Amino acid sequence: MLAKRIIPCLDVRDGKVVKGIHFVDIQEVGDPVECAMLYDRQGADEIVFLDITATHEGRGTMVDVVRRTAKNVFVPLTVGGGIRSVEDFKTLLRAGADKVSVNSAAIREPELISEAAAIFGSQCVVVAIDAKKVGEGEPGDGARYNLFVNGGRIDTGKDAIKWAKEAERRGAGEILLTSMDTDGTKNGFDIDMLNAVCAGVNIPVIASGGGGTLPDFSEVFLRTDADAALAASIFHYGELTVRDVKNELAAANLPVRL
Amino acid sequence: MIAIIDYGAGNLFSVKNALDFLGYESVVSGDKTGLERADRLILPGVGAFPDAMEKLETAGLTDVILSEAGKKPLLGICLGMQLLFEWGFEFEKTKGLGLIDGQVDRIRAPGLKIPHMGWSDVKRAADCPLSEGIREGDRLYFVHSYKAETDMENISLYTEYGDLIPGLVFRGNVFGCQFHPEKSGKTGLRILENFCKL
Fold this sequence. Notes:
Number of helices of chain B: 6
Strand order of the largest sheet of chain A: 1-4-5-6-7-11-12-13
Oligomer: heterodimer
Strand order of the largest sheet of chain B: 2-1-3-4-14-13-12-9
CATH topology of chain A: TIM Barrel
Strand content of chain A: 25-35%
Structural class of chain B: alpha/beta
CATH architecture of chain B: 3-Layer(aba) Sandwich
């Protein structure tokens, strides 16, 4: 049986780890390679590097960070942020990434998903979706989940669930779903949004945004079909370790790699 | 010296990184001499069976692998493991290297997501030097849509995903891992090290 995965995410700018609250107010802390090695020792099932400045200030150079990490960390490594072309995929995969995550560029040019999947295989292609509930009422009844881009700054007006389905149809191997409503709040994952997306696709979904306490992590797996949960700041500031979270899942009888 | 076979399919450097980390010398090589000189061989691979066999043929490596496999340990990883079998049924029926009896066909797992991707727990079957130190329930990282079908006597570790999925197969000095030992944390590194120490 597959284990539920716990994935620490490192937001990286100019080769340094940063973490923003609600994607703004960024403060710098730490070397990404050291952080990745620490998470690996704590039992991380996968590690995500997100180049958070790439979309705005031109393509960030993550290649060296990825190359150094891949020499020391032997679990799957995903890299995202500012990926625009098949060439970007190739560069990062050659540097040692196992998966590449695309967001804004795939929305502008959905063929990027199909092309990358055809060349490198679906298992390499993660589509990151930033979504937020808009409108009054319940989703589907007055309110809906809209797709946001540029680090959550711009509302595309598009339906996030429809986009997740299109991403799957085009060959995405996985969806990384961040709820803008719960991100940074530490009040728990967005269960309703996750259920809406999980019901719409048949590829793995990574839950992101809102994990703050141990019960938040068991809750997301007990109440949704998410395959993995991602968190950044709580791990980064040492509020919880990956090991703590995995022990919590084991105590809740969830399949986990200890 | 371990030769990691380069035939244009797959992430060779992850395997090299893992061997470097373990302290075993390796070289990425796509030529006959390099493979003949090595004292063990690793056949990696990501992609589709027919395309990979064609690439091996085009690179003129099929015969070298077949002749060297009798002389030194060989480890196939992921698609590289699948190529060790007699036949592949991905897209079309394709002849494999035939070093282990059996064939490769699509995973039948109704209701489960394909590819089978993630950390699956393994069970032990036949004893094999590569599974030394690996316990029942240890988890390894799998990413694949096709799986081997072979006799239980050729299977050392397997997992269940709707279907029986051979994880570590062997016959004599020929070994194959369906999972990625280079991406499976300490458990995977242990298996690689077992191979390096043969």
